[in-house]
Amino acid sequence: MSFKRFVQLFVIYVIAILCCEALVQFIPVHSLALRLAIFIVVGYIVLTIPLTILTLMKNKK
User: Fold this and answer.
1) What is the pLDDT of residue 30?
2) Could you give phi then psi for residue 20, rounded to 5 degrees?
3) Is the distance from CB of 17 to CB of 40 less than 8 angstroms?
4) Residue 38 and residue 27: Cα distance in Å, rounded?
5) C-alpha–C-alpha distance, residues 4 and 1, integer Å
6) CB-count burial class (<10 Å; 0-12, 13-18, 19+) for 50
7) Looking at residue 1, what is its pLDDT?
8) What is the pLDDT of residue 28?
9) What is the structure's pLDDT at 9?
């Protein structure tokens, strides 16, 4: 894995964490199970969409 790809992955990972935390703070969640479910679903979506787009862009070159 190139350094550029590693940095892209790290940045997207941080954005995913921040989005999940913001969503949980915006929607008052008191249940740990629900909080984890929100983190898993939103985190997965935020991670996969940009990484898929970057992979498709890389394969077009």
Assistant:
1) 85
2) -65, -45
3) no
4) 10
5) 8
6) middle
7) 67
8) 83
9) 85
Tokens of 29: 């969640």
Q: What is the mean pLDDT of each run of 10 residues along the chain (61 residues)?
A: 83 87 84 88 87 85 70
Structure tokens of 28?
A: 């008052």
Residue owning tokens 């949980």: 24
Give yes or no for a contact between 38 and 29, defined as CB atoms under 8 angstroms apart: yes
Place of tokens 């996969």: 48
> Locate tokens 């550029």: which residue?
4
DSSP per-residue codes, 10-36: HHHHHHHHHHHHHHHHHTT---HHHHH
Look up the pTM and report it: 0.70
